């Protein structure tokens, strides 16, 4: 059922999405109803309106969370600076790595394009005068070269031309690179990591002695929140923080007013 769910999320067309969730329906009507209510418009490839370049993940913030929990014990200003340092490190490594790249696209995209190109030899393109071509292979697909569109939906979903599109592009004597999303280029990657996040200058700078007169004493806010950082609640974590019962009648713990047996 989990595989069907993943397949539904990745399914390129409403028909294939439907097929996947019908399979789930045959196993569990409850799961099926949950999926319908979860607004597939926001996560299923076949209904999603925007472009997300085939990225599908439920733990987008995982890296950030691990950074934040490393700095968990620190005061907030130092915590922000630790996270800034990690971001800086990430930017630096990605920038230096990409300096070595000689390909037009980032290596992972270059790899994907190569994979699609390998499938082209088994395809047959029916030439046409307009911008729409018919491509025959295991299936028959329509490629609209002007609108970067293939009926298999692969081109639109990934931002890289699918094998059908590459076949047509080849027939026209053009380069598939001219039909890839610009975000996949090595240039774009380098541009993304070209800037730095500078440290906050005042962090760790001791307050000059003579300014002590001006120092305002900051008292804690009048909240009933207990001291210390609140218990971390992370997405996906199974940990449930249980509130300790306290009785309003006798102030004892472990029971409440209605179950109080204390003699007062
Ligand atoms: Zn296609
Ligand atoms: Zn009590």
Quick take:
With 264 residues, the protein is mainly α.
Chart the SSEs and their pairings:
Blueprint: H1 2-10, H2 14-27, H3 29-37, H4 62-70, H5 76-99, H6 107-118, E1 124-126, E2 132-136, E3 140-144, E4 149-150, H7 154-158, H8 163-171, H9 186-192
Helix pairs in contact: 1-2, 2-3
GO molecular function, one term: zinc ion binding
Keywords: Metal-binding, Zinc, Zinc-finger
Protein name: SWIM-type domain-containing protein
Structure description:
With about 260 residues, the chain is mainly alpha-helical. Among the domains are: about 1-40, no CATH class; about 105-190, no CATH class. Helices cover about 35% and strands about 5% of the residues. It is built from 9 helices and 4 strands; from the N terminus they run ααααααββββααα. It has helices at about 1-10, 15-25, 30-35, 60-70, 75-100, 105-120, 155-160, 165-170, 185-190, and strands at about 125, 130-135, 140-145, 150. A 4-stranded antiparallel β-sheet has the order 1-2-3-4. A hairpin with a 4-residue loop joins strand 3 (about 140-145) and strand 4. Helix 1 (about 1-10) runs antiparallel to helix 2 (about 15-25) and helix 2 packs antiparallel against helix 3 (about 30-35). The longest helix is centred in the N-terminal third of the chain and has 24 residues, at about 75-100. It is flat. The mean pLDDT is about 85. Bound molecules: zinc ion (2 copies). One zinc ion binds next to loops.
